[in-house]
Amino acid sequence: MHQKADVGVFGGSGFYSFLDGVQEFAIETPYGPPSDKVAIAEVEGKKVAFLPRHGKDHRLPPHMINYQANLYAMQQLGVKKIYAPTAAGSLQPHIKPGDFVISDQFIDRTKGRTDTFYHGPITTHISAAEPYCPELRALAYDCALELDIPAHQQGTVVVIQGPRFSTKAESRWFSKMGWEVINMTQYPECVLARELNICYANIALITDYDAGLEDDPHITPVTHSEVIQVFNDNLEKVKSLLFHVIQKTPVDCKRKCLCATALEAGRS
Q1: Stretch 201-219: mean pLDDT
Q2: Where are the beta strands (DSSP E) in the chain?
Q3: Which of 21, 26, 106, 193 has its Cβ near the most Cβ atoms within 10 Å?
Q4: 139-149 mean pLDDT
Q5: pTM of the full predicted structure?
């Protein structure tokens, strides 16, 4: 593997199609092929690897994504830091469509997904107490403030199996528990990154209120076309945020965060 990258981004071709000098590479991994070819481009003097988690044509539903191959491909490229934008729903009235949430915790409600690289004979227990890189999270939030993008510094994301959406009963339960965001792809993506000692941060783009909030008299249920419109508006904002964050992301200094030594700590 001769290609190298400093930073990784899980996102579609909309994030890099306008960049010059983009090269695409098919990467093989011991876990099968990743979701698509990896595009590598230079952003603010850094080599950045872009990988669409659903495939370029969005052919892969959340439960069919090869998360192991996607993360391993990033590791093969030498990536140490990943930013992972996602579309997401809000579970709380104060988190509005158009807001960004820099997630700090997750609740796993998926089933049957392969969620570890380590099946023995060496027993490996990765800590997930703080599943997202605190340094990348802080940087992403600070950059959002600099760009005047409405962002929440923290939030718990409930990861559901999909491809169906939640029932109203499920959604009300999640909301009453105080969780903020709902999504289908954050697990096991973030823990697989941690198992490879890769720093990882999620930037959730809020496109709509989840089903359980539609009975709130202060909330107007959104239509599908409105969700698409909010997503497209957010996409331009997240592109600006990503490139601003990448510009400020240090890649040559020694990492001091918990992500850098997670694997070693999990085997001690």
Answers
A1: 86
A2: 7-10, 23-25, 38-43, 46-51, 81-90, 100-102, 105-109, 151-152, 156-160, 181-183, 199-209
A3: 193
A4: 97
A5: 0.93
CB 76 within 8 A of CB 29: yes
Confidence band, pLDDT 50/70/90 cuts, at residue 265: confident
Q: Which of 210, 215, 216, 252 is catalytic?
A: 210
Q: Which residue has the tokens 């876990």?
A: 31
157 φ, ψ (degrees, to nearest 5)? -100, 125
Number of domains in the chain: 1
- Give the CATH number of the domain where residue 175 resides: 3.40.50.1580
Establish if 172 belongs to a structural domain. yes
Question: What tokens does 199 get?
Answer: 């720093």
Domain range for residue 259?
Answer: 7-265
CA gap 110, 47 in Å, rounded:
33
**Which residues, at least 6 apart from 114, have a Cβ–Cβ distance to it below 8 Å?**
67, 68, 188
The reply to whether 1 falls in a domain is no
Per the domain annotation, does 2 fall within a domain?
no
Of the residues 6, 36, 104, 208, only one is catalytic, namely: 208
Q: What is the mean pLDDT of residues 235-248?
A: 92
- In the chain, how many H helices and how many E strands? 6, 11
How many whole angstroms separate alpha carbon 58 and alpha carbon 50? 15
Query: Which residues, other chains included, contact 219 with Cβ-Cβ below 8 Å and sequence gap of 6+?
Result: 93, 209, 213
Vertex 22, ends 16 and 28: CA angle to 5°?
A: 95
pLDDT given at position 13: 67
Residue owning tokens 């997503």? 231
Catalytic-residue membership of 208: yes
The one-letter code for the residue type at 25 is F
Q: Is 233 among the catalytic positions?
A: no
